[in-house]
């Protein structure tokens, strides 16, 4: 079982008694999962480590001081909380990271954005609102991004919204993505 949703559903439904999960996953708290100690040290320990190219440090020497102040300040519980703000509350990861650095005193406090981030957009054709596919698409997006707000926009050519970045997802036909030449060979549009 590799899919996180399947793993947590199986734990929640009591179809399995144990599973391999990440300690930084915010769902641990939601599902009441108890993390066992890895006393045999089977799994590698993941710790954030600043990696900076030497030429970057030469161009920005103050960066080394900033990185050293951050080192060892993010533990597993903090990562789980931060991941929860993104995955469960739908907050933008950039805002979450910035706020955490502000809490640590590593960045000056910035004004709060007036328009919240965290909305994902699905582009559909005007006629597709009655069909099965838009319903399945919205269900799939909500399952993968439960805390994000979902906006559905209509356009005669949803592919334009996806290509321009106006929409992250789109219900597209094969003709929007592929071209067939006169010999019936498949090519990229």
Could you describe the 3D structure shown?
The model has no long low-confidence stretch (mean pLDDT 80). This protein has three domains: 1-43, no CATH class; 47-114, no CATH class; 119-188, no CATH class. A hairpin with a 5-residue loop joins strand 4 and strand 5 (186-188). It has 189 residues and is an alpha/beta fold. The protein has helices at 4-12, 27-31, 54-59, 62-70, 76-87, 93-103, 132-144, 158-164, 174-177, and strands spanning 119-124, 149-154, 169-170, 178-180, 186-188. The chain is built from nine helices and five strands, in the order H-H-H-H-H-H-E-H-E-H-E-H-E-E. The two termini are 36 Å apart. The strands form two sheets. The chain has a three-stranded parallel β-sheet with strand order 2-1-3, with helices on both faces. Strands 4-5 form a two-stranded antiparallel ribbon.
Q: Cα-atom Rg, whole angstroms?
A: 22 Å
End-to-end C-alpha gap: 36 Å
Domains (count): 3
Question: What fraction of residues sit in β-strands?
Answer: 5-15%
Structural class category:
alpha/beta
- What's the main sheet like? 3 strands, parallel
Helix tally? Answer: 9
Query: For the residues shown, what is the average pLDDT?
Result: 80
Task: Order the strands across the largest sheet as they lie in space.
Answer: 2-1-3
Element string (H = helix, E = strand): HHHHHHEHEHEHEE
Number of strands: 5
List segments where confidence is low: pLDDT < 50 over at least 5 consecutive residues.
none
Sum up the overall morphology in one term. extended
How helical, in percent, are the residues? 40-55%
At a glance:
This protein is an alpha/beta fold and about 190 residues long. It is built from nine helices and five strands. About 5% of the residues are buried.
């Amino acid at each position: 079982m590799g899919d996180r949703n399947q793993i947590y559903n199986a734990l929640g439904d009591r179809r399995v008694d144990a599973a391999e999960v990440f300690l930084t996953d915010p769902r641990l708290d939601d599902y009441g999962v108890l993390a066992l100690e890895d006393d045999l040290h089977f799994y590698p320990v993941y710790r954030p480590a600043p990696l900076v190219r030497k030429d970057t440090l030469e161009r920005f020497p103050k960066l080394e001081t900033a990185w050293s102040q951050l080192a060892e300040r993010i533990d597993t519980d903090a990562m789980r909380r931060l991941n929860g703000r993104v995955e469960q509350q739908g907050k933008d990861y950039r805002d979450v990271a910035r706020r955490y650095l502000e809490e640590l005193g590593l960045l000056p406090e910035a004004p709060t954005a007036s328009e919240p981030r965290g909305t994902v957009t699905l582009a559909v054709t005007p006629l597709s609102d009655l069909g099965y596919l838009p319903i399945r698409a919205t269900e799939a997006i909500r399952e993968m991004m439960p805390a994000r707000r979902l906006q559905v926009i209509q356009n005669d050519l949803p592919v334009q919204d996806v290509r321009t970045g106006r929409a992250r997802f789109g219900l597209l036909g094969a003709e929007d993505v592929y071209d067939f030449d006169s010999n019936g060979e498949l090519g990229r549009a």
